[in-house]
């Protein structure tokens, strides 16, 4: 870049940076707006967007009026070469009252919808809302369905057209729940429960109205080494499909009677995985520390949105979790309690392959939207 110098280099850096910043787009979303806050899919987002729109229009109008007045003043009172000082002015009551009153009116106009929306969003969820307890972990998410007793991780399944009421908490540090297409952020704070609620309107989605969807979510509060790898999906279903999903989580289909899958199920116990993970239908898998892996084969991403859930990635994750997600508490070589002692268990290549087959085979049979 030596042939560019001074302000040219700075200007091209700014322009190139701005253009490239607009190119960012997660690979797994086909609709092009995974993190758009201006594509409202819920009542909550719609309310926020209305305030946002009011602010935008008023500030644009104010900007053009002020710019026009400034340009006129610069031209009208320019130095035209006439001798002596121009006419001197000391105070103008009408002007001063005007430029005090107009901003007051503008601020009040902005304040009314802002306060109305703040109160609306802080209201209790409507009757009949689906309650889900959301817990922020060390870079992954737990979703507990209070009514049905179902637990899942990193993919929150919800029905459309029914209010969803979230109780947000954290067991370690502060995280923040943010699904841009569904609404604003809410922090997860250790020792207290924050709430938020929204309804996904199946006909309001501007990308594919009436279609079940995946909505990309992120942790929006810096929480340590793998904060950027603390993603999740909100997966919307029709009410009937959602009931099927709940039923399949309560009573998951048995894994296929394939020899490799059977060996994987065995390795899940022998390798110590059962100490940290629940898989409904597998009586040995009762550990609560790690993500619930019931119907794990349905998930499209792995390790809280770190990589796509493919056999290859799953193999890499099981062989060396830290290389996929730095600082994860997932153990490559889990330990197993034998006679009161923790004995490390090293997974063999053969066991890892069998585990991949077993975990990938755990599917609910309910159709899953891919984007
Ligand atoms: Cu959790 Cu950032």
Please count the helical segments. Answer: 8
What binds here, in terms of ligands, is:
dinuclear copper ion
Portion in strands: 15-25%
State the helical fraction. 25-40%
Describe this structure in words.
This protein is of the alpha+beta class. It is built from 8 helices and 14 strands. The chain has helices at residues 6-21, 43-76, 93-122, 239-250, 259-270, 311-319, 321-324, 349-361; strands at residues 130-136, 141-145, 151-153, 155-159, 163-170, 175-178, 186-188, 194-199, 214-219, 231-237, 301-302, 307-308, 335-338, 341-344. The strands form 4 sheets. It has a 5-stranded mixed beta sheet. A 5-stranded mixed beta sheet has the order 4-10-9-6-7. Helix 6 (311-319) packs across helix 8. 32% of the residues are buried. Residues 24-30 have low confidence and may be disordered. The structure holds dinuclear copper ion. Residues 136, 175, 219, 221-223, 227, 230 line the site of dinuclear copper ion.
Task: Give the key terms.
14 strands; binds dinuclear copper ion; five-stranded mixed beta sheet; 371 residues; 8 helices; alpha+beta; elongated
Secondary-structure map:
Blueprint: H1 6-21, H2 43-76, H3 93-122, E1 130-136, E2 141-145, E3 151-153, E4 155-159, E5 163-170, E6 175-178, E7 186-188, E8 194-199, E9 214-219, E10 231-237, H4 239-250, H5 259-270, E11 301-302, E12 307-308, H6 311-319, H7 321-324, E13 335-338, E14 341-344, H8 349-361
Parallel strand pairs: 1-5, 4-10
Antiparallel strand pairs: 1-2, 2-3, 5-8, 6-7, 6-9, 9-10, 11-12, 13-14
Helix pairs in contact: 2-3, 5-8, 6-8
The protein binds dinuclear copper ion.
Dinuclear copper ion binds next to loops.
């Amino acid at each position: 870049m030596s042939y560019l110098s001074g302000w040219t280099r700075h200007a091209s850096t700014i322009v190139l940076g701005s253009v490239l910043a607009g190119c960012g787009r997660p690979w797994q979303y086909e609709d092009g707006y995974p993190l758009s806050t201006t594509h409202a899919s819920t009542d909550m987002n719609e309310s926020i967007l209305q305030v946002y729109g009011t602010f935008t229009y008023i500030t644009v109008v104010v900007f053009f009026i002020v710019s026009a007045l400034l340009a006129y003043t610069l031209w009208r009172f320019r130095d035209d070469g006439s001798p002596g000082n121009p006419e001197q002015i000391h105070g103008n009551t009408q002007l001063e009252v005007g430029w005090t009153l107009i901003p007051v009116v503008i601020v009040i106009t902005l304040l009314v919808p802002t306060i109305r929306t703040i109160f609306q969003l802080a209201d209790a969820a409507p009757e009949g809302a689906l309650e889900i307890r959301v817990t922020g972990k060390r870079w992954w998410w737990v979703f507990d369905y209070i009514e049905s007793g179902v637990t899942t991780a990193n993919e929150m399944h919800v029905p459309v057209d029914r209010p969803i009421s979230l109780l947000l908490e954290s067991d370690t540090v502060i995280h923040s729940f943010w699904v841009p297409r569904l609404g604003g952020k809410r922090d997860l704070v250790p020792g207290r429960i924050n709430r938020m609620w929204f309804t996904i309107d199946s006909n309001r989605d501007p990308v594919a109205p009436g279609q079940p969807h995946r909505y990309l979510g992120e942790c929006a509060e810096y929480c340590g080494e793998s904060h950027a790898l603390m993603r999740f999906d909100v997966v919307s279903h029709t009410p009937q499909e959602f009931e099927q999903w709940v039923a399949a989580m309560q009573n998951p289909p048995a894994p296929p009677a394939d020899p490799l899958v059977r060996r994987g199920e065995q390795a899940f116990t022998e390798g110590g995985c059962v100490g940290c993970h629940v898989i409904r239908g597998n009586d040995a898998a009762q550990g609560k520390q790690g993500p619930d892996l019931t119907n794990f084969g349905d998930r499209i991403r792995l390790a809280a949105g770190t990589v796509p859930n493919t056999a290859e990635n799953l193999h890499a994750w099981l062989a060396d979790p830290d290389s996929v997600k730095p600082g994860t508490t997932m153990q490559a070589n889990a330990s197993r309690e034998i006679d009161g002692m923790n004995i490390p268990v090293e997974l063999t290549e053969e066991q890892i392959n069998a585990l991949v087959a077993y975990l990938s085979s755990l599917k609910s049979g309910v159709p899953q939207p891919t984007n």
